[in-house]
Amino acid sequence: MTPPVWRWLAPLLVLLAATALRTHAIGVQSLWSDEGNSVVQAGRQLTDIALHAARDIHPPGYYQALHVWTRLTGSSEFALRLFSALASVLGVACVLAAGRVLYGFTAGLAAALLLALNGFSIWYAQETRMYALLALWGAAAALALTALLLRPGRARILALGLVNAAGLWTHYAWPFVMLAQGGVAALWLAGESLRHRGTRRRLVALLAAAGIALLLFLPWLATALERVSAWPATGVALSGGMALQRLYPLLAVGPSFAGLTAEWQAVAAGSALLLILAGSAPTRRALWRSGLPLVWTLSPCAAFLALGLYREPNLKFLLPAQAGFALWAGRGFAWMWSCPAPLLRALALAAGALLVTGMALSLGPLGHDTAWHRADYRALVADISVGLGNEDLIVLNAPNQVEVFHYYYRGDAEVLPMPPGTGPVDEASLQRLQGGVAQARRVYALFWGESERDPQGIVERALVAGAHVADSRWYGDVRLVTYSVPRSLGIVETPDARFGDQVVLLRHSRNAGRLAAGEDVQLQLDWRADAALALRYKVFLQLLDAEGQLVAQHDSEPGGGLAPTDAWAPGETVVDRRALMLPEGLAVGRYTLIVGLYTENDPAQRLPLGDADHLVVGTLEITGEKG
To answer: What's the alpha-carbon Rg for the chain, to the nearest Å?
Structure first.
């Protein structure tokens, strides 16, 4: 009998929805630093990829697969990420097939839909990294293990062995999935008798599949053990309640669960809970089949937490568990939907509809809220390039920004990673930085991951000590600070100007009274507080035209943000170096330069200076365009 149309149309629509969600705006955001590393690795020859991966914390499998992919598609942002998107869609297809084999058509369809809509899966499906591929192997392993336990055969033994080998070559977190497979096998063995021929046959098949995987990974095993043992620990331990609070919303809805209203958080979490409770009912026959989703979800999470790996960037290691959670909830929906009681069917429909709605609502912030956007190196490089000259210096506080930076930057200015390796900033690197700054006109410094890469702020402090901060802005989680390198501050005045009751500007020095448009006004301000300050203030430096209109401005806390006013010691002189980049095309004429302070978060609350709220530093004559 020909199956009804919806039996093939419904799965097709789910897969099309998964594809649309994973390819929507896939090239809009810039590549970020780790994606840049993927691009450079994929651009090497296959043997060179392995040599470089031997010094990294990831095996070479993904990079080698991406190498082949880019030879066929090119290296545009869209093409690079499409590899992950297609892997993620295939993962949805594997969950669809696994659910159908384990629990029937309805369970497989429901599980696939929940995985298709989950923001955790979608987010990493749009990233040029190995995590979508890791998730695919996790779903494929569930399908392959199920097929092998139901009816062992050579092809199925080989399939499970190859999937496990692929997982091992993709990421060092794959043993978490193998642990889940062991748990499922233990459940299966608990319900079988070793005297039965079929039991022995399946046990041999499982061991053979494991042997194939180990044999295929053997050339890399020693490297993997050395890399995993040598890599520094960066996670923290979590209590059981805190772990549940962090991981459950991630698996049920996605990383933007917190972006939902409190009401929708409760509705989505409650609906998912109802489905997994219904999906937790054991069956006497084939206990492993009812337990597979629980083990597939909980084993990786338990191992992850037991090893103290928890931190936000590490949560992607749990993507394979997402397949287990989807199967768990899908089984629960199918069980309630199959019950003859109208109330249970209504509950299944309501819980499924509400969970799907909550997941769909959570995707809005994931795609459009800037808090979820990646570091925008594309825009950063475009902004730098406007005024960049060959005599300028670009400093990267984290060396693994080099790859993504050069993906967008094609200029000739020197790019200096600090330090050149992954260790702390050493004396040789610091000397290279100081020498480069001394020769530059401007320095553009990119600060990323400072708490790990340079927790003592050595790079930034060296730059503040040797140059004047001209601008600071964020591009996602990357901060670009522009410095103007001083030559001579020949104009010196000592106004001894008192702002408010306690802040005194002892002296100000600047580089010139005549400048061309596009050049920098360099200013050193020497401050003193007569008593401890309870508030933090920002210093503003403004350039006004003849009509008093603002034409250029630079606001920041003193000392490039490193000397906040609430940390000033009474009587101490605080040196504050700053610069003002004059706009290109600024009209010839005479301008007024003023300085003042305001409460950190309220520019309207300026500290008074007598009857005024600023000090006139002097006048500046713009002579024309710079030569």
So the answer is: 30
